Amino acid sequence: MNDILHISVSVYSCVSNVMKNTFYSQRFSIAPMLKRTDRHCRYFFRKLSKNTLLYTEMISPNAIMHAKNDYLAYNDEEHPVALQLGSSNTALLAYCAKLAELRGYDQINLNVGCPSQRVQKGHFGASLMGEPMLVADCVKAMRDVVSIPVTVKTRIGIDDSDSYKFLYDFVSIVAEKGGCDNFIVHARKAWLSGFSTKENREIPPLDYSRVYKLKRDFLKLTISINGGIRNLDEAKVHLQYLDGVMIGRAAYQNPYILAEVDRVLFNCSNTVQLDLITIVRSMYPYIEAELTKGTCLGHITRHMTGLFQKIPGSRKWKHYLNENAYKPDADIEVLEKALSLISI
């Protein structure tokens, strides 16, 4: 049982010598997930992998410009980190892309994959697949004002427009007219009506071969795949055909996946051995600093509850945090008590 608790957490000296702002960092990434990949989540994930590309949640330019909260806030330790924007307003996208570059973000990503009704009403997300020239204009507007990469996350199709030709034409136009050379493709089509956002992540069938073919037809483009990928063994299979793999909920629900990424996918050497309890305790300085700012402990620990999956005591750990981390006086002692419930 002790063996499963020990993981390899890479340090910065890697054989691959992954550098900031290189497309090699697209090799493995964590998907932008609404109400999940906030700055606390990303800080925690970075404790497990130094090279995984992390994404913000999808953020509207209007929120960045007008909300009281600082939607661009992040910690320097999160690099490499990409900002995902959701909009079809070229001027707003360009403004926020430039602002993000000035704030130090490594990449900008345009969401052309979310099928929710709210997003459609805002005229962005997956519905934009039907307007490739508009997407190209959005990408170009951002590329014209920033020097960091601008990428597009999309689906393989929408509604009945789900032929390979439809996908090929979309990518061709956005690449040629917009100058986009980096696409992350969720290997499912999106139904714009009739299905919920959750159903759109599960019901439309996966078609990995279509994404493979896209890479064969666009050899000069960086093509990454997303959708239904559960572990690093599956990721390695996809990397035989594509430039990158993006995993979402599988990694969020079981963060242990991230612990092996640097060694398995980035060929990192000079690793140090840390157990999972040490990883939790390495979060304490960050947590204590956040608590002094008024952050609720539960807003941080909610991203950590899956860390001990399949280890004796994991359910007690998760239950204790869920029950106690949101109390007004919750502090590090809550985590220490929760850790005592893990059987080592």
Automatic annotation (TrEMBL):
Question: For this protein, what reaction is catalysed?
Answer: 5,6-dihydrouridine(20) in tRNA + NAD(+) = uridine(20) in tRNA + NADH + H(+); 5,6-dihydrouridine(20a) in tRNA + NADP(+) = uridine(20a) in tRNA + NADPH + H(+); 5,6-dihydrouridine(20a) in tRNA + NAD(+) = uridine(20a) in tRNA + NADH + H(+); 5,6-dihydrouridine(20) in tRNA + NADP(+) = uridine(20) in tRNA + NADPH + H(+)
Q: Which GO terms describe its molecular function?
A: flavin adenine dinucleotide binding; FMN binding; tRNA binding; tRNA-dihydrouridine20 synthase activity; tRNA-dihydrouridine20a synthase activity
Where's the active site on this chain? C114 (proton donor)
| NCBIfam families per record | PRK11815.1, yjbN
Pfam families under this entry?
Dus
Gene3D superfamilies for the chain: 1.20.120.1460, Aldolase class I (3.20.20.70)
Function (record text): Catalyzes the synthesis of 5,6-dihydrouridine (D), a modified base found in the D-loop of most tRNAs, via the reduction of the C5-C6 double bond in target uridines. Specifically modifies U20 and U20a in tRNAs.
Instruction: Say if the entry is tagged with keyword Transferase.
Output: no
Cofactor(s) annotated in UniProt: FMN
Report domain DUS-like FMN-binding positions: 30-340
Q: Which family does it belong to?
A: Belongs to the Dus family. DusA subfamily. Belongs to the dus family.
Q: Which UniProt keywords apply?
A: Flavoprotein, FMN, NADP, Nucleotide-binding, Oxidoreductase, RNA-binding, tRNA processing, tRNA-binding
Q: Which domain of life is it from?
A: Bacteria
Q: Does the keyword Thylakoid apply?
A: no
Site Interacts with tRNA — annotated at: N111, K198, R201, R315
Q: Any idea which positions bind FMN?
A: P32, M33, L34, Q84, K153, H186, N226, G227, G228, G248, R249
Checking CDD domains in the record gives: DUS_like_FMN (cd02801)
This entry's Enzyme Commission designation comes to 1.3.1.91
Q: What is this protein called?
A: tRNA-dihydrouridine(20/20a) synthase
